Amino acid sequence: MDKIEAFLSILVAAVAADGILHQKEAEVLKKHMNNQSALKGFDSTSKIKSIIEVIKNKGYEELVENSITFFNIEEQESILAIAVDLAYSDSEICEKEKLFLAFLIEKLDLHNEKSESIFNSIVALNRDFFKK
């Protein structure tokens, strides 16, 4: 595994946590991938398919734990923000996504206050003011 695969693994695990890939999640995933210079022009399709297979067969826990080791604290903050953004992109975080995010937060080398601040900021950013 390299840093690109580690990054993709965490993002794919975030969108795969509930077992459903919503259109909005796919759009947000693509946006975050396009924001990374190393992924410009990178054909991620086969890599993402192999990550999905690993998650289907073994779950996301070991994959995420191994992936986190590639990132420093600042990058881990960004990873958490992106994961929360992906989970919340369909305007709600279901129980399985909450479990994934709790697992991710537990494994990151961030202080609880920092994790909570990042989580709350991304939720506030994605809040739908007009949804009933």
Overview of this structure, please?
It is built from seven helices and no strands. By secondary structure, the chain is mainly alpha-helical. Helix 1 (3-16) packs antiparallel against helix 2 and helix 5 runs antiparallel to helix 6. The protein is globular, with a radius of gyration of 14 Å. The protein starts with a helix and ends in a 6-residue tail after the last helix.
Write the layout of secondary structure elements.
Layout lengths: L2 H14 L6 H12 L10 H14 L2 H8 L4 H16 L6 H13 L4 H15 L6
Helix pairs in contact: 1-2, 1-3, 1-4, 1-5, 2-5, 5-6, 5-7
Q: What would the keywords be for this entry?
A:
132 residues; single chain; 0% strand; mainly alpha; 70% helix
| Structural category | mainly alpha
Helical region count?
7
Helix content: 55-70%
The main pleated sheet reads as:
none
Rg, Cα atoms, Å? 14 Å
Query: Looking at the structure, what is the overall shape?
Result: globular
| Beta-strand content estimate | under 5%
What is this entry, summarized?
The protein is 70% helix and 0% strand.
